[in-house]
Amino acid sequence: MAGNTFGTLFRVSTFGESHGPAIGCIVDGCPAGLPFELAFIQHELDRRRPGQSSIVTQRKESDTVQVLSGVFDGKTTGTPIAFLIPNEDQRSRDYEHIAEAYRPSHADYTWQAKFGHRDHRGGGRSSARETAARVAAGALAKLFLNTLGIRVQAYVSQVGHLALHTPYAQLDLQQTDSNDVRCPDPLLAEKMIRLIKKIRKAGDTIGGVVSAVVTGCPAGLGDPVFDKLQAELGKAMLSINAAKGFEYGSGFAGVTMTGSQHNDIFLPPAQPDAPLQTATNHSGGIQGGISNGMDIYFRVAFKPVATIMQEQDSVNAAGEAVQVKGKGRHDPCVLPRAVPIVEAMAALVLADHWLRQQLNYQER
Amino acid sequence: MAGNTFGTLFRVSTFGESHGPAIGCIVDGCPAGLPFELAFIQHELDRRRPGQSSIVTQRKESDTVQVLSGVFDGKTTGTPIAFLIPNEDQRSRDYEHIAEAYRPSHADYTWQAKFGHRDHRGGGRSSARETAARVAAGALAKLFLNTLGIRVQAYVSQVGHLALHTPYAQLDLQQTDSNDVRCPDPLLAEKMIRLIKKIRKAGDTIGGVVSAVVTGCPAGLGDPVFDKLQAELGKAMLSINAAKGFEYGSGFAGVTMTGSQHNDIFLPPAQPDAPLQTATNHSGGIQGGISNGMDIYFRVAFKPVATIMQEQDSVNAAGEAVQVKGKGRHDPCVLPRAVPIVEAMAALVLADHWLRQQLNYQER
Amino acid sequence: MAGNTFGTLFRVSTFGESHGPAIGCIVDGCPAGLPFELAFIQHELDRRRPGQSSIVTQRKESDTVQVLSGVFDGKTTGTPIAFLIPNEDQRSRDYEHIAEAYRPSHADYTWQAKFGHRDHRGGGRSSARETAARVAAGALAKLFLNTLGIRVQAYVSQVGHLALHTPYAQLDLQQTDSNDVRCPDPLLAEKMIRLIKKIRKAGDTIGGVVSAVVTGCPAGLGDPVFDKLQAELGKAMLSINAAKGFEYGSGFAGVTMTGSQHNDIFLPPAQPDAPLQTATNHSGGIQGGISNGMDIYFRVAFKPVATIMQEQDSVNAAGEAVQVKGKGRHDPCVLPRAVPIVEAMAALVLADHWLRQQLNYQER
Amino acid sequence: MAGNTFGTLFRVSTFGESHGPAIGCIVDGCPAGLPFELAFIQHELDRRRPGQSSIVTQRKESDTVQVLSGVFDGKTTGTPIAFLIPNEDQRSRDYEHIAEAYRPSHADYTWQAKFGHRDHRGGGRSSARETAARVAAGALAKLFLNTLGIRVQAYVSQVGHLALHTPYAQLDLQQTDSNDVRCPDPLLAEKMIRLIKKIRKAGDTIGGVVSAVVTGCPAGLGDPVFDKLQAELGKAMLSINAAKGFEYGSGFAGVTMTGSQHNDIFLPPAQPDAPLQTATNHSGGIQGGISNGMDIYFRVAFKPVATIMQEQDSVNAAGEAVQVKGKGRHDPCVLPRAVPIVEAMAALVLADHWLRQQLNYQER
């Protein structure tokens, strides 16, 4: 069964290869009557766009999105919403040298093993270009979540060894987009940018961490036992190119705590029927797989980009030793452009589960 | 949409509450003709069973599994296989004191918020007892994977601050079940057991990490772009009670590496058409979301158990301040019993994706 | 992908073979808080039960249903509801003579072709016994629909050449269960019963038609373009053993009409915002795949039962000519027992689509 | 849950409205390595195209299909295949008069009831224009089935009272496309064409029946208990605009037969392991929901088109009595253009179930 669809009720199916005529997606299940803002969707795409700053790939794609269906008189109609993003800058010749070679830590070999043949131009469908379609769909999910008061914000919290240890609540997340690396701490951002430039100069790449926080999420979202909210968020994040790990709330650090340290004590509410709050939030806003009304926060690890501008030993399809070296224009670090992708995937999960929760409880 | 089904082609749907008559599951999509070994399935359940050692809950459940359908003449028939595990030890009175109170860091409040009412006895369906059904289904998946030469092995690699840093390849994983905590390093296992006993004596609990490795997996498993193998494994693991994080291959540690350090160089094969191997395996056996034929390995973080034998402040359904304290028989540390659950969930993912891969490539 | 699950949001998965320990199902997605009436569910099963009258099979099964999960304090909890129906009367020896022979117009040959081996006892999972699980699930759906004012009623409208031509609106459907054949016209019912007895005496079987009507269904149910309400009802009915055809509204007879004859004129409503009604109802309550608030009505054709008490030529697994003759206790006509099955499947479709419609339109 | 996706493994998701920029679809799950013939796909679309003859709508759409992804070097790659069909002839003004009025037996009222608002231009997404996307997807399925020797052929067997009673096996189905109405009996075709022209002259419309036959289908396709092959075919057909009924094999006529008449006797095969054949084929090639290797045949009833060129009483959104009359260019009879749609939907079902059957039986 093919894996190009995400979500159950608010559902996106993406298509397209890096160097084909276009990429895009269909969003099915978006409720009717939602005011549609194309400008906002384009804005989100611009945050992911190549060439947006000096520390990302200089590939030239305007990533201009078209809407083919599902919108009438400025509102969604409840029918599938198709987004189309034409590919513009297709220097396929940059990839001819790897038509036969398997680039190390790329998807060349595994796609060949899976499908028997592949579109090698720009990585074909394994290219991170596919995530542009996710960002378009996620932007629509954000428009929906906005009407419900739910907000998703991500930021770069680590590049290489440069880590931001300040808790999100003490950061001004408005600052995230004020610098090229999308770290809300301006001083650290400067250091990160310098590091990325240095790494790029060496023809190398570097990894990092994106942190994210969801505010305004009501209690009740998430569907145990398998579709727990953290499981769905985890899958969403781990489906992003180069993601290597996911943790929420106390995460891996929580394993050294005792229960008496880790438990989040409930606070008596001001009114008896007010939503409950907890004194701490090691749970990361999710208990038993269901949102509890506190902030949801999580972290995603990204490995260094596999394409480096250095000669590397490898093997070609005939099993012969070859050398490969990156050509063309690549990201020295995916982190700055990963921020809108993380937000998009989180928004898709939350929109989906908000709809799912409409089905669980009926007053009667 | 309810979340009680896992997998797409090899698919398990679980049912049942901690203190109802029984729990169980239906496995649908298991291929016909598979030799069925009930003894092996019971063996796996015994590894998860309460009361198996002095460092786990002393709740008395034999967890004897019955097979109601889908097997004839010792083989699977291709029809749904229903497993039933009667509940035996139901001291519901142990839970009367929390009928109205919300236990800290438990699912009491969130299930109430989600469904409007709940079965409070033993946590109802949020109880980890539900995972027994997963282990039964996972054991069947293991029987299937065995015929394909694929093996899943998990072990406890950390309890509290006691961490096993030896790479899995240097461990004798046969030793895992030789001690009560399921750590393959006998000396460290001793320390972990002592730590757990000490923690229990203090009426407290402790977290830890389960590591896992899959050997014998062919290249080609995993379905980009959303159902990448790591995304599916991550969801599977994060759906287990108390899991807080997932990482594979280099994981969170990989973010500080450069591309030139992290990339796994392909080695020229002995014969031209032999499966490729890589010099290192930072990829954790998965590249571009698809298995590459190398070992798959990953780690899962588990928080400390929320039920502690100490008085804690909390709130009841009326919003009043109350105090709660664990009664009954609980695990001071989930790690030893989490090992077969991690293996079961991984086996379900791999069986599902092995079947999925049958569809992708057709010689013609 | 296995086909043992029906529905998307209100979803049933059945399991079990005719001569195994039990059959049953899991219903997932039933909203929480629904008052649960086990007696009603048993009542519906009794309407489908073997041995209920002199014109059905005399196989002895009490079909006593047990509920294993998902209900607490007399209400559904929103978790999976598992139903178990133990098999009691398993004369497997009645089937030994056909272990190798393929009975004409049975599923013996096709199941063998599909799965490579099969459970031949009583037809295994191809037995109509499986429909008992559907009736249990459908009864739960009926309980849900009752709270919404939606009612499903089926009846036998034809046995062999004996056809009831009276439109449903002129029948007293309360009479349906007043006779053994479940035809609401008492005089025709008598004739049908006599025909069935005569057919049985000849060792033969006979087909017929079940008609059904849904009242109280609001406008808006059904999900174009593929999951149109008639498409879902049609699939539901055609999945019942022995069903050969489905038509709704004007059906096959409507093909000879002109548009000007067939169109259902809208009537001006008493109040401007009242639901609309149409002067005629050739549409069968569904327009463009969506319910329009008028009665939904449809018909299902059932072929004669394949098991006859006469010698028939056939072939065995070795390809040799053999003769087979029915043994044991079989229905001379499935129609009387098909009525609750048709109702159950229709109820499942409507419950599912009522939930689906909750997602489509959000006032904002 | 939205209903714009069909199939489980070979899966199509359509999008687009009659008067938007474009319609199209994504096909996901088509195996890699299939030779791709765009000319054949266009050929199938031409068979459905408006304006193809004097007895269909004269709306001008070239229905030129573009392929955006999933094909490389003339073969499918295993990734999603996106088809785009731009809309060309959008006389939206033809629909301004019905912006507020509900046309009788159209989907205007029900879509309004479902979604709260709608795109009224040309019926929006309820327009039969959407079926062009199905034909593109179905043509791809046909390319796949061709490699397996499976063939789907449909033809018009009835228009109004003019019915073709000759069994399909005695017809020359090559003749189907030799006349404008797509009836393989040239004499009857002439009469049908005359009838349609007469009906159109009267400003009216007429219904009919499409018959279809599948040859070369191996035994084993179809997934009991719910996804029986006839249930899936039935759903596929009943999802087509204007379809009112479906029957296969003996269908509704079979209900008057006895079991001894209806049963299909197996014939001893020439070799012991050859596929079995039956003396008759009342089963329509499907037994127990699974194909048995004989021809599959079925019939689909279509109602008369709702848009007529006569004044009809109706009601507008405000509940006021109004009169409506068709404007623009419409089909007097959908049957000729329904033939490729029936074939497309049948091909999608068979491709899907052929893939599904790959999972059921594994030699070991």
Describe this structure in words.
4 copies of one chain form a homotetramer. The first copy, chain A, is an alpha+beta fold. Chain A has a single domain, classed as Chorismate synthase AroC (Chorismate synthase, AroC fold). Helices cover about 25% and strands about 20% of the residues of chain A. The first copy, chain A, contains 7 helices and 19 strands. Chain A has helices spanning about 40-50, 110-115, 130-145, 185-200, 230-240, 260, 335-355; strands at about 5, 10-15, 20-30, 65, 70, 75, 80-85, 100, 150-160, 160-165, 210-215, 245-250, 265, 275-280, 285, 290, 295-300, 310-315, 320-325. In chain A, the strands form 6 sheets. Chain A has a 5-stranded antiparallel sheet, with helices on one face. A 5-stranded antiparallel sheet of chain A has the order 10-9-11-17-12. Chain A has a 3-stranded antiparallel sheet with strand order 8-18-19, with no helix packed on it. In chain A, strand 2 and strand 3 form a beta hairpin. Chain A is globular, with a radius of gyration of 21 Å. Chain A starts with a strand and ends in a 7-residue tail after the last helix. The mean pLDDT of chain A is about 95. Chains in contact: A-B, A-C, A-D, B-C, B-D, C-D.
